[in-house]
Amino acid sequence: MKKLLSIPLLCLLISAHGPAGAWGSESSTYNLFTQRKIVVGSLENSGDQQYAYLTESLRDQIALLIADAPFIALTDREHDFLRTLSRREEYKQMLSAAGGTIGYRLEPVVIKGEPIAAEYPLHVYGRYEVYTPEEAETPVLRISLSVRNLMTGTEDAVIDLEGSLFGFIDAPRSFLIPILPEFLRYTVYRVTLTAEPSEALIFLDDQLIGIGEAADVLVTPGLHRLAVREDGYHAYRDLVQITADGFSRHIRLQKELCLTRYDITTTPDGVNVYLDEEFQGYTPLSLSVGPGNRTITLSKKGYRTETLVVTDLPEGGGKLNFGLIEAGVSEQLKQKAERHRKRGMYLSWAGLGVLGSSIFFGVMSTLKAQESDLYQTSDPGRSSDARTASETYSILLYSSLAAAGGIFVFSFVETVQYFTTYNRIAEYEQIPLVSTELAF
Question: Residue 231 belongs to what domain range?
């Protein structure tokens, strides 16, 4: 029987050493304040040495399982330790990269090897044995894991697990999942979802978790958003309450008739596209839409979110090219219009002031001309001085009239700019997009 086991175990070892995912190598971007390093150390075979080749397979499967955990929860003691550590000069840059905060939920970073004390990881190690109980033909795999916490210098958990060796060979993930709750310090449940057709995309909490099937997905208890979609079918959406381990659901999508296909491109690229508030992907994107008042929403950080009703788009489908408006354009235009209004108002007041001076200069020019005529015979000197003053006031009069005219022209231009800018605001608020190209 031991020889018969070697073939499936060899397959298991090969599958476990597939392409590296979220574990298996050191990361130069590891951040103590956002990530929790877990080092899966040595596993000693304390039983029949014929099964020594299980060691690496067990380490790989444990590492893969922990790497798929939603998060690693910090205890208050660990949180206090990190807060104290953050005050040290050599960790301030790392804290800044974490946004200046230390949360209680850290992303797991899992590697195999020996722990580095300066990284304060959780060190997982232990032993296993395979034996066949009396009066039984099925070999049993027994695993005992210890979890040493290098942040607190304590042994956090000792986890014992026992079950059929064939169970581990057939479904290593299901076999090992019972170790997680105590290790993660919170409850985690398994969810299995299947869908028809087999090409359907399965999303949980807006994250793609499988195509056609997602088995033993780890989730926390509570409400979760479930969505299944495939081109040519009505999308399935539901809010599910996970209250027990082993939640499963099979979703059969219904075919959607009279689909219209739109090839959507945007300026800029990489815009989030939602159909009826369900995420579809990033532009450029091909989107198949059924009949009815469905909505397409386009959103990207730094740009205004736009929502379009499908019935307002061309019925035959085609290519849509949308140019998104930068966020805050309307507010910027309002501020610009207000500046034009104030400048126009100030210039009008200045023009009225200069015009008032023109009236004064005109009156003084007339009075001095009359004075010159009055003393022309009796006092020629005074008459000459009055004539000179009259001519000076006349020059000031024409100059001030010209200045007032120029000021009023500038005031008029600013007023026109004010109304033009506000018209642009109205246009931005009325149309959904700056520019739209349709090609059919």
Answer: 191-252
